[in-house]
Amino acid sequence: LAAGRVNRAQGERPVTLIGYSLGARLIYSCLMSLAERRAFGLVESAVLIGTPAPSDAAVWRSMRSVVEGRLVNVYSENDYILAFLYRTSAIQYGVAGLQEAQDVKGIENVNVSEMVSGHLRYQYLVGSILEKIGFEDIDVDEVAREEETLALLEEEERKEQEMKGGEKM
Fold this sequence. Notes:
Strand content: 5-15%
Distance between the termini: 54 Å
Low-confidence stretches: none
Strand order of the largest sheet: 1-2-3-4
Helix content: 40-55%
Largest sheet: 4 strands, parallel
Number of strands: 4
Mean pLDDT: 87
Structural class: alpha/beta
Radius of gyration: 18 Å
């Protein structure tokens, strides 16, 4: 991704990068690579959602240096899958997808803990999250469909829990 941006494979204009989970990790890696290459002016904005990457200031300062517009860290304190998997595979304790990126001017930290009850919920909430942070040109019909799908999924899970609770008695 970084090489494609440096080589201007997608044209001359800066791009906006949006990703969640491993997609956000890809964006993190891209921005870090661009910072190492001192390749400025290639990324307009970046939104990293539920990111399995460090939250320490040095990392986010590097990313900030290559993003001209908004750099947004969207996190949920309820993301137990990310907490377990990331901390199992890395010695790092500060995880961007679980907490604010610390002490870096120009980083927007958005806590979506009230919306996101777990890592697997992000796929249904990207549109809602982008709406919440003020992105324009969001397909409101698609956002409504995603929210409806999530509501149906949560209803099914609630019924399964009730049935399991009844079996134990």
